[in-house]
Amino acid sequence: MLSIKKIYKSLLLLVLTVSMTMKLNAQEDTLGRNISTTIQDVYTFKVGDAKKIDYNPQIDPPKLNPPTLTYNIEGKEYKTKPEIVPSKPQNYNNKDNERMYGNYTKIGYGMYNMPLFETYFHNTRSKNYDYGIRYHFLSGEYLKANQVFSDNEAKGHFTYNLNSLSKLNVHAAYERNRINWYGYKPDSATFDGDSIKNIYNNFSGGASYQHKGKTKDDFSYSGGLDYYYMKDHYRNTENYFNIKGDVSKMVHQHILTVPLNITSTSFTSDTLYRRLFVDVNPRYLLDYGKLSLNVGFNSTLFNDSLKGKLYWYPYADFKVKIIENKLNAHLGIDGGVTQNTYASLVKQNPFLDTVLQLQHSNTKVKVLGGIWGSINSHIAFGLDADFGNYLNMPFYLCDTTALHKYKVVYDNVDIFNVKATVQLQWSGNFKTTAEFSYHNYQLGDQLYAWNMPAMDAKLNMQYNYDNKFSARVTAYYIGERFGKNIEFKDSTKFSMNSPSVTLPAIIDANLLLEYRYNKMISVFVNGSNLTNQAYRRWLNYPGYKLSVLGGVAFTF
To answer: Which residues contact 164 (CB under 8 A, 6 or more apart)?
Structure first.
């Protein structure tokens, strides 16, 4: 594997080379040419919705992260998507007689006693303010196997434009999620309903303020705070408080941004555990059109009841436009601290035991690079790779108790990732996106990267006919994984008393059909796991087989 010293030397050579190139370009730009500066966000990988276009489809610069675990492939058996995307407060060019439909209600029912109800109310459109309230309920139960879940969510937001340069936002939400530990064999043990369930309640809220400079030379800044309180069905509670802000300004014709993030968390089980994270991650973007270099560092001051420590990592991302509107490339280095909370671990694996130990993860170094672009007006592509050294990365092992709850174990791991994406825009109404990823793990103490696949893929096909009929097919492939049942002596020590289990590869196909009767009424049918596999994303926990859910949506 690459050593950290070699990585840093390579980065230093890259920065020196790019700096020489920047200086040459800067000298050329003194010959009376105007220099335009573009403010760019952190690279994210996303593909726009299918629509009629007169230009090449675009794929944004990709950014790879370590593979993460989820409960099942779709998140839940049926994942809803709002019919209407709320409009932001702004000036509108719509005709006076054009009506906008900003509210909707969706009602459905499916197999496994699976009711769906979702409603959204919105102020539709306004020049100065925007507000909305959403309620969502979805549950399912396969009583024969005690597979039960329910999701409740109520959330609201209010955004107000104080003036043309300043904006205020307030938001609040409540989530209630219920699961069963159904990993036991019903014919070998009997439990009452209350002893096999866990309920996660999460209350959250926050506010933010944003001010943009009147000119490009003025200061722009933003700030805000977020809070949540999470409680499970037993004794675990978590308080999360975050204060964040950033300030940016043009410095020598280039943008300098300095964000500050302060996070305080407290987790209470049998004892109270407090942590404090202070993050300062400045960025200076040198943009010369075809060449750009975003440089800075990531720093975190960590403190808990036992110790305090300062982490510091260099950051650089060099981007070049090789062929205008056709081929781009980037190369960079990164690193940082990731806070693992009770809430974040539950999102990955809700079948956690109620006794766990929280540790933060540390990306000691990550080197990444990739290319993206388009071949013609119908084909876009992206290819990215990275190598990272991660300390205290969380993995999940199942215990040997009757309920088979999951414990968190941490290990140091080197991961090499490769991801390829192709988008085919057949027409304005038909789009296909294919993704393939490969992961190579080099573990420290663990035998395998538990529950993590070496290969995974996704195929998404969307078709729309005359805004009346739409269809979406999404298919997933997750390669073989490894799991294990172990006996835990306490929260940190365990003995491997059973052989590793190979979890077979998963192929999961889903189909969503929708017919719009008119602008206000539509009907839909969703089919999940069309291959009817009782696959195990987690050892001992088979998922639902074929599931069909249908309903009607009203937009008003």
So the answer is: none
Domain of residue 80, residue span: 4-555
Own/partner contacts of 10-14, CB < 8 Å, gap of 24 or more, are 10/367, 11/314, 11/316, 11/333, 11/367, 14/316, 14/318, 14/331
Structure confidence by residue, pLDDT tens digits, 217-232: 899 999 999 999 999 9
Contact 1, 414 (CB under 8 A): yes
Q: How many angstroms separate the CA atoms of 315 and 257, rounded?
A: 13
Q: In whole angstroms, what is the distance from residue 381 CA to residue 424 CA?
A: 9
Residues constituting the chain: 556
In a 10 Å sphere around its CB, with 0-12 CB exposed, 13-18 middle and 19+ buried, how is residue 294 labelled? Answer: buried
Residue 70's φ and ψ, nearest 5 degrees, are -135, 160
For the question of whether the overall pTM of this predicted structure is more than 0.90, the answer is no
Pick from 523, 431, 525, 526: nearest CA to 468: 523
83: confidence class by pLDDT, cuts 50, 70, 90:
very low
The CA distance from 352 to 452, in Å, is 17
CATH number at residue 482: 2.40.170.20
Distance CA 547, CA 542 (A): 14
Q: Nearest-CA neighbor of 234 among 279, 207, 198?
A: 198
Tokens standing for 315? 């950051």
Q: How far apart are CA 138 and CA 118, in angstroms?
A: 8
Using CA atoms, how far residue 44 sits from 13, 40, 64, 65, in Å, is 26, 11, 9, 10
Name the domain count of the chain: 1
> How far are the Cα atoms of 69, 127, 340, 348, 481 from residue 344, in angstroms, in the given order?
11, 37, 6, 7, 22
- pLDDT 10s digits, 248-300: 999 999 999 999 999 999 999 889 999 999 999 999 999 998 999 999 999 99
Residue 412 parent element (H or E): strand 406-427
**Residue type (1 letter), 39:** I
List the beta bridge partners of residue 221.
Answer: 211, 247
Q: Which amino acid is at 297?
A: F
Beta bridge partners of 72: none
